[in-house]
Amino acid sequence: MTDLMPLLPEVEAFLKGPLSLRIGGGTVDTDGTIEVIDPSFGSPLCNVAGAGAREVDLAVTAARAAYEGPWSAMTPDERSQCIWRLAELVDERAGIFGQLDALDNGKPFAVARDVDAAYSARHLRYFAGWPSKIEGATIPVSVPDRFNYTRIEPVGVCGLIAPWNYPLLMAVWKIAPALAAGNAIVMKPAEQTPLSALYLADLALEAGFPEGVLNVIPGIGTEAGAALAAHPGVGKIGFTGSTATGRRIVEASMGNLKKVSLELGGKAANILFADADLEKAVPGAFWALFGNNGQSCTAGARLYVQRPVFEQVLEGLVALASQVSVGPGMAETAHDLGPVISERQMRTVTGYIDSGVSEGAECVAGGGRLGDTGYFVAPTILTGVTDDMRVAREEIFGPVLCVLPFDDEAEVIGRANDTEYGLAAGLWTQDVTRARTLAERLKAGTIWINCWGETDAASPFGGMKQSGYGREMGADAIALYSQTKSVWVV
Ligand code: NAI
Ligand code: MG
Known about the structure:
Elements: H1 9-16, E1 21-23, E2 26-28, E3 33-38, E4 43-49, H2 53-73, H3 76-92, H4 94-105, H5 109-128, E5 138-139, E6 147-154, E7 157-161, H6 167-180, E8 184-188, H7 195-206, E9 214-216, H8 221-230, E10 236-240, H9 243-252, E11 259-263, E12 269-272, H10 278-290, E13 302-306, H11 310-323, H12 343-358, E14 362-365, E15 380-383, H13 390-393, E16 400-406, H14 409-417, E17 424-428, H15 432-441, E18 446-449, E19 468-469, H16 474-480, E20 482-489
Parallel strand pairs: 7-8, 7-10, 8-9, 10-11, 12-13, 12-17, 13-16, 15-16, 17-18
Antiparallel strand pairs: 1-2, 3-4, 5-6, 6-20, 11-19, 14-15
This protein binds 1,4-dihydronicotinamide adenine dinucleotide and magnesium ion (MG).
């Protein structure tokens, strides 16, 4: 038995509840409850209230009242201070957030605290500076005797729908710019991982946000999520999740033509040239996929390795896979990786491994479920993969790396771009001219050269093709949650 760390008293108290919806500064109970599972053990952790269409409506009404009332009445400086204080509270309570995300997501506590919570605080701090810097323009129009200027205004009420892979961080990626742009929010966390977002709603009140500015309503995607996406009182949906659900959200948005931004799936190509610094490139390419247990939209899932170094790289990857430690998120002694999110996801991922093998791939590390408690999948490496196999084309979203050889640049760029996705791609090479030209030719929203996975609140992030549209982070994210008004004056 692995020793588990004790729950922090604040976490214990929070889990005792009420784990109700956070609407309008208060709590709302529902008939619908969601059982939250601890994926490290496959056992029930707690029940949270689940929103239905009625509660979505309540939350939108509360957000509208806050938007039209106290939130819009605050000065940019006052709004900045609220966001900054929330950042400070997230930093201060990083251990609490770390435990909450470790419990319902399964990721290692130290990662949840030092990556997810720490980056969430940084993200909030970056956007805290924005409210006083959202400037319109004076436009040199050619109409005589007219003065024209623009105002950058909030959309109003934004519905934000988050996934379960980085529960707090993905919520904050959307909440921070939406607040900075002056909107009020209805946030629906993923049904698997509602805890950290609920706790964040409580902190927002402590940070001084008016009641109703940040409403958090856990709920099932096809119920609460669908109702939010269709709600006529919502002006904008910000979504991260699967491409299939992204399509449904666009359909649901048609009623009132709400704005939509989508961060969807990926099948990133990671290209490792023979001239790369292998000491860095091999672990870099390994963690590009296995980081967060492969449960990242940017996971470097297709590793193309130039033939002269193929065997050497593969050996290095297999050695790393054998050293990785896997265990419960709350283990007293930290592990590298936790379980995958759910029994369903475990079956999906092991199903992909089986499909790869039955199509002719060879499994050189891992190969299936680990143990019989919790939803653990062994870090798995497949070779003998061809570009047309399902494992090479579809998003697996788990710890499965496909390693494919290539010969030359022209060939690999064609193969890398031959995907419906376009979120991220990477290159490992010491040839700066090649790096620069391939960075132009790769069709993806983020390119990493001799590194992987870096993001920063100041740098735009988002997808091309079916990885979605809209760019989160930086000035682009402010634009995503704003609308421009043109004013003419005589
Ligand atoms: P999903 O895309 O269905 O869920 C993401 C969020 O959307 C959750 O909050 C969910 O409740 C909500 N949702 C689901 N159906 C909805 C609907 N009809 N209207 C509005 N909101 C809805 O993803 P799911 O089912 O959890 O995982 C399936 C696959 O999606 C994964 O295996 C993975 O390939 C991909 N995925 C990608 C993510 C990314 O970061 N790009 C994150 C999560 C999943
Ligand atoms: Mg789904």
